[in-house]
Amino acid sequence: MHDKKTLKASEMFAMVTMLVGMKLTDTTATLYAQKSQNAFWVMPIISFLVILPSFLLLLFLLKKYQDKNLVELLESILGSVMGKLLGFFIFISSFLLIGLDSRSHIEQIKLLYFPASPNTVIFFLLLCIVFLGAKKGFEVIGFASKISLPFVKISVLILAILIMGEVVWQRIFPIFGSGLTIVLTEGVLKGSIFSEFFLLTIAYTSLRKTADFRIGALFGAFFVLFEIVFFFFVYTTVFDYNSIEKISFPFHDLTQFVSLGDYFTNIETFFMVFWLLAGFLRFIIYIYLLTWIFGAIFNISEFEPLLLPLSFITLVIGMIPDNSVVNETVYRDTLLNYVTPLYVIFPILLWGVALARGDLKKQ
Known about the structure:
By secondary structure, this protein is mainly α. It has one domain: Up-down Bundle (Amino acid/polyamine transporter I), CATH 1.20.1740. 72% of the residues lie in helices and 0% in strands.
């Protein structure tokens, strides 16, 4: 990889927003609502608070160990063998998640727009686009995210404004839905919803300045939290609690509610264009970061040729679940629960080892 270090905080902000912000349009809301009912809009806040301290601690360590990315930091603190092993666990967990997430994305495209097309064909076309986009390199991906961001967010803002007339505020009650204990437990277990923050640290030294990474990542993190919570709140107040847990794709159902008069029909097509653009960029960023991590673990400096086989394996993983219900309520739900402790604990482990060795005092 030839890193020119031309990206700034604005590009990092855009990539964080594209990578994590798309969760407001996928099946994450439905997954949250399965147990918490109408209180699911509170759960992203809990998940974010669970993962934020570990992410801030990781940024602190990266700042102390200057000129190191995620994998280099792991090896510097834990040693080559243990560092690579932990890095491989991070890679595997995230690779499985992208496979399941991509299956959910494909199910949306198929059911909403191409119901007669086989999943495999749509999956193959998606990954071809993702592969070709990822081949352009990190700088191009960053600039593309920055250029696309205003169009995507303006379309989302238009939807938010148009849907306000359908909001019924009383539907947020009871505030804690099926119970405070369930909301807290599920919110904590689903902290890995924001695991992409950690993956981005593989690019810590690839921006113009490391300060640009921290500024862009943190501003992006809080922005996507606000965006996700806001739209989950809108879903709660537009759909009643009996239906919210049965709706597979609330974002697209939301577009069915908006109207601009009798002369503007099928307005959901307008939002589909920008949703597809953001979806492509999300998976382009995701597969590139994972390939980068894989290359760093196995000391492969020119890792771009690995984009094609890893994209193909993503397709294979995504086709394992029998259907979208099994994919979401069994595989993805279970994987998110098991992965959360990994992302919460490993920065604390790194900090503890570095502190015990006295490395933090030397920096």
